[in-house]
Specification:
The protein is mainly α and about 130 residues long. It is about 55% helix and about 5% strand.
Length: about 130
Amino acid sequence: MFGASLNRAFTWEVRANNRSYHMQFKKKFAFCLTKKKYAGNAIKTAKYSILTFLPLNLYEQFHRMANVYFVFVILLQTIPEISTLPWYTLLFPLSCLLTIRALRDLIDDIGRHQSDRNINNRPCEILSGKR
């Protein structure tokens, strides 16, 4: 008996795509910028954006000890007393290696962006009404 009266009093309304309803949950952030109270449900698996690709990729590349060692050897080759080769002859293989790895990461990330776009643009069912 208690459960039946509780179900009659309870109503549930889903407002999934009601923009005016969701605007009330945005907070003023700074000047005219607003910050959402809740996170969106878009899937984002890509590592880079257009602005962050080069700095983040170089940061990841130089976390490999082999690349750090290569730069150290190039710096040692700039000292004429201990140099056996011109420094630019060692810079070319390092730059080729970094470029090939960056292109590989770029191609992977473009694929991730396309996959995210396909998943986020799938049609979905929206619940509406009262229960």
